[in-house]
């Protein structure tokens, strides 16, 4: 643990602003990597629980929010930008309390879309347009495929 702090915080103890440096370094050493790891781990775990390819979940989250939890955009919320009606449809409480709730709602709704339209462009388009939309491939679906293949 000390080594992790020393690697992330080579300036501690140098200069007048050592407390500010310490706070920033502790954040860099612990908060950011742990958070990023937890999101990836949660996505994989929830995707596997619902029979959805984790790479697809990550691609949708990248398109929807650039992999950021807590994002609000109009009527949509969370890392997978789920709307209130969709969250209720899949049995997840709204508004979301945690990033885990956001992922859970998104994966469950994505599963419904894939079950109807297939694991490809049409299914991904249904996630974006609504699971009862007409079956077609959109630019959104193609973008998910492009990001998934990277």
Tell me what the structure shows.
The structure is a single chain. The protein has 150 residues and is mainly alpha-helical. It has helices spanning 2-8, 18-49, 54-65, 84-89, 99-117, 121-129, 139-148; strands spanning 72-73, 76-77, 82-83. The chain has a single domain, classed as Lysozyme (Orthogonal Bundle), CATH 1.10.530. The chain contains 7 helices and 3 strands. Strands 1-2-3 form a 3-stranded antiparallel β-sheet. α3 (54-65) packs across α7 and α5 packs across α6. The chain is globular and about 60 Å long. 30% of the residues are buried. The model is unreliable at 1-8 (pLDDT under 50).
Number of extended strands: 3
Low-confidence stretches: 1-8
CATH architecture: Orthogonal Bundle
User: Could you give the order of strands across the largest sheet?
Assistant: 1-2-3
Q: Summarize the amount of helix as a percent range.
A: 55-70%
Largest sheet geometry: 3 strands, antiparallel
Radius of gyration: 19 Å
**What is the N-to-C succession of helices and strands?**
HHHEEEHHHH
Jot down its keywords.
150 residues; mainly alpha; Lysozyme; three-stranded antiparallel sheet; 7 helices; disordered N terminus
Layout of SSEs?
Elements: H1 2-8, H2 18-49, H3 54-65, E1 72-73, E2 76-77, E3 82-83, H4 84-89, H5 99-117, H6 121-129, H7 139-148
Antiparallel strand pairs: 1-2, 2-3
Helix pairs in contact: 1-2, 2-3, 2-5, 3-7, 5-6, 6-7
């Amino acid at each position: 643990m000390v080594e992790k702090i020393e690697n992330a915080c080579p300036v501690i103890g140098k200069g007048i602003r050592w407390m500010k440096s310490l706070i920033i370094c502790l954040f860099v050493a612990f908060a950011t990597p742990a958070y990023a790891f937890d999101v990836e781990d949660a996505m994989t775990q929830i995707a596997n629980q619902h029979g959805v390819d984790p790479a697809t979940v990550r691609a949708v989250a990248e398109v929807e929010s650039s992999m950021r939890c807590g994002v609000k955009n109009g009527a949509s919320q969370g890392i997978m930008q789920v709307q209130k009606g969709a969250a209720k449809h899949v049995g997840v409480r709204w508004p979301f309390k945690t990033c885990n709730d956001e992922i859970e709602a998104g994966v469950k709704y994505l599963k419904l879309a894939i079950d109807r339209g297939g694991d490809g462009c049409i299914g991904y388009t249904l996630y974006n347009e609504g699971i009862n939309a007409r079956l077609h491939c959109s630019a959104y679906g193609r973008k998910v495929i492009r990001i998934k293949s990277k």
